[in-house]
Amino acid sequence: MQHKAAYAPLHMRMAMVPITRVATAAWQGIFLLGLLFHSFGRFVGIAILIFIVLTAFQLITLPVEFDASRRAKARLVELGIVRGDEAQGVSRVLNAAALTYVAAMVTSVMTLLQFLLLSRDRR
Length: 123
Description:
By secondary structure, the protein is an all-alpha fold. It has one domain (8-122). The protein has three helices and no strands. Helix 1 runs antiparallel to helix 2. It is elongated. The termini are far apart.
């Protein structure tokens, strides 16, 4: 439904997918190299920049997932799959599913803050 409606945040998210695949592997490798070669200060800056990309991806994903849940609720009722008394339960489950992306974003932000604090301590 989002593809058909040309939902802009979805297109932004999809454009970032290849970048985030590389970034996910890269930041971990760079971080470990910094620890192994005792050059943490040199490598942590690169890891932070990469992790900023991953955090931005999490942020862009939020409206996509909340919109998907909203659309799904409406569509399930429209198709008669969910009826009156079931709607509240379905809504709670879909809201909980969308909130998992909030948890992922908060985790990403907290990890980024941890890296920033580590880099400050290593200077």
